[in-house]
Amino acid sequence: MKKLPALLLVILPLSLGAQTTRVFVKQTAEFASFSQSPDAFNSLSLSVSRIANSGTPATAQILFTQLSIAQDFSTETFTEVSGTIPPASFSGASTASLVLNVDTSTLDPTTSFAITCNVDLIALTEVCGPPANGVIQLTFAANNVQNTRIVDFNEIITNGPVTTHVRQKSDNGTANVTGTIFGTAVSSSQATVGVNHDSSLEIIM
User: How many CB atoms sit inside 10 A of residue 108's CB?
Assistant: First the structure.
């Protein structure tokens, strides 16, 4: 998962006192993820995973984060979309080929949330609201360039009013990803597919 700039992590706990929502899910099946930073001021990351044992009917969970920082470091904007998506939105029988096709406007607000925040890094203020909705369509295909095993990964990221805690044990492999995110083309050979083993995702807002 792409790490955020230290400046963001230091400044943005301003609104944490207002946290009222907690989402916690176990992840014990197939997943796919990728991140990219086209330049020093823009980045995005996405992960999607099933919440069940492999080969059984399952719901799925998505976590998407996009960050843009002004070149003079005066402002930044970030968007986060997280929560449960319909089982059919994440398809594929194995990590050889996994497909994500989800319209964020159709997500259930009782099991997911989406937020965009504009942050003034000079005045140390932020204004948050719902983001523009859209369609994410991605195809992940394992390329077997590299395979790894994560034994015990533990990461906490604070993004404005949203805190994300990821614990992961998994078998992973590199993959190619192609498709679009909100109409913007995506293509990379640096994606990851794999199977979670007793992993978890906790989001507090």
Answer: 10
